[in-house]
Structure formats: C-alpha cells, structure tokens
Amino acid sequence: MSQPWASWVEFALPEVRTFVDSRFEVAPEAAWEDYVAIAAVVPGLAGTPGPLGDRARHRRPNARAEPRRCPRRLARLAAPRRRSSLERRRLRPAQPVGVADSTQRQRTRWIPYPRSVDTPQPLVAVVIPALNEAGKIGRVLDKLPRDGRFEAIVVDDGSTDGTGDEARAHGAALVIRHDRRMGVGAAIRDGWRAGIARGRPYLALVSGDDQHEPAELAPALDALLASGADYAQGSRWIAGGRVEGPTGGRAIGTRLYSVVFSLLVFRRITDATNGFRLFRSSLLADPAIDLDQPWLDSYDLEPYVLYKAIGRGYRVIEVPCTVRYHPREGYTKMRGLRDWWRLFRPALLLRTGLKR
Questions:
Q1: Which tens digit of pLDDT belongs to each residue from 230-250?
Q2: Whole-angstrom Cα distance, residue 79 to residue 75?
Q3: CATH homologous superfamily for 117-352?
C-alpha cells in the first residue's frame, strides 16, 4: 500500500474510534478491538512502519480479551435447553399434529409410545370404509386391537343392508353415514378428516370386507414408532406377510402393478395395491397433498397418498400383513378395467405432471 493511503487511514481510524466510543457507549477495550479489526482489513497496513502498523500488528500488553457482542450468540444462549434423548423418551404424547407451514413442510418430532399399553386417549383412528358389508363389518371390528391405542371410524358409503347399525353394535367409536354412494376415496377422506378432528396423531386404513387382519395394526404401529418412520405400507409379499384363500389370478396383477408403481416413484414397493396402511396424520397437513380433488373420490386416493408420501421425502416403510380372500362372498367391489385404471393413473399422472 502506498504511504499516502496509510497516512489517510492513520488519520481516519482515531476518528472512527471516537465515534464508536461516543455513539455505542462501549468499553474502551472493546473499542480498541474494533479499531484493530478495521486496521486489519486494509491490505498491507499491518506491516506499515510507524505507530499505526505496530498497533495493528500487536495487541497492547494490558488489553483484556472480551467476548464479542454477537446478537445471534446471545439468542442461542437465551433459547431453551434442548432435551436429551432419554428425556424425550419419557415424554407422553403431546397434542395432535400441528399444521404445516404454507411454504415448507413441517415434520412432527418422533415421540415413541410404549408398546401395547393403555393410553388416556386413542393414538390411532382406524378408518374402515364399508359398502353393504353387513355380516363382515362386525368381524372386522371384533378383531381390532383392544389395548386402548386404537379406535374405529366406520364410513358407511350409502349401504342398504344395515352396515352402519352392525358397526355401532360391535363398538365402532364413530359411524359416518353417506346417504348415497360417493366412492371409496370420498369415504376414506371423510374418515381421515374425522380422525384428525378427534385429535388422533396417527391414521390407519383397513378394508371393511374382512380382507385384512386388524389385529396386525398393533405390530405395525410398534414398527412405525421404533423406526421413527412417517408411513407404514402393508405388504403381503414380504417376510411375515401371507395370503389366505384362493387369489383368483389377482396375485399376478398386484405384483405387476407394484412393479410399475415402483418404476414411476423411483422406490421399490412390493405391494402398492394393499389398502392396509398407517401413517402420521400430520402428513395430510402438507400443502402439496390435496385430497379434495374430485378425481380422488374413487380408488385413486390410496395410491395418490402413497406416491405423495414417497415423493415429498417422508420416510416410508413396509410392514407384513395378511390378505384374506373370501371367494364365496366375492373378491372385491372393483369394476373391471375401469377401476384398475384408477389404481394405475395416480402415479402416472403425478409423474408426468398432469395432476398435482
């Protein structure tokens, strides 16, 4: 640096120090630290001969090191202490899930719950859509775990055979009645909304035609809590899962669908058609997951939620479950290729960006 510049800075720095002292009322030693810091940013000034170069290069012998007055550090020190992992394990479940921010997904902190123990309020709202399932819905409700963590919400989608009355007689916590058939997706959506309104931090889904084993919800919840995952998808094809009864050729179709779904979502899912699932209700508060779209009123809703859970970065695991077929009572209420297309199209439309 040329000597004129050094002379100018040497003249200006005392003025800066005087201004700092008078304006901000800092201690003299703190002002000296600011003085040295300003001198250090001028190239070559520390090596300039003269008193200014010497003072910028060396601290005064009696200079006392004082902590920097950093607002961010003070804010961190004033923040509440973070709990240890042991303290977090001892916490009881807090209030149900919060609402996600409109610009950024908010993930709920994992609080492990004790296994198979009674809780003051149920943790899981098990939604069971049903259409003319008299004689079956009672069997489904009788198999629900009785450890206090689960409650059943049956959505009667326009049944004409007394399905709702049978559900009440077998201990359903809530029965929602549709005066007309609105579709399985609409029934599931109404059930999940009711579970959120009742303050349940987890939502589940099982079939109303006795195809699933509701007692398997207990180990599924334990697996979800132990892993800290957000979403548990049931699978009959992984270790521990099984199929009971003749499949009627459906095994090939479900495996083929799972392969296509896995390719579209970039994640291997072994049983994407399986309705058995359990997840955090906070997932539905994600602004990118919109269940109110009319095209989700039928079988599209279930693969839509699974695709979104994976695509939005939630942690998804698969849990073993049982799928039971009753050939004498009918395999399914799906109507041929039209309803199979409704299963296929959510992943395809979301991957291509035609739907959101």
A1: 999 999 999 999 998 887 777
A2: 6
A3: Spore Coat Polysaccharide Biosynthesis Protein SpsA; Chain A (3.90.550.10)
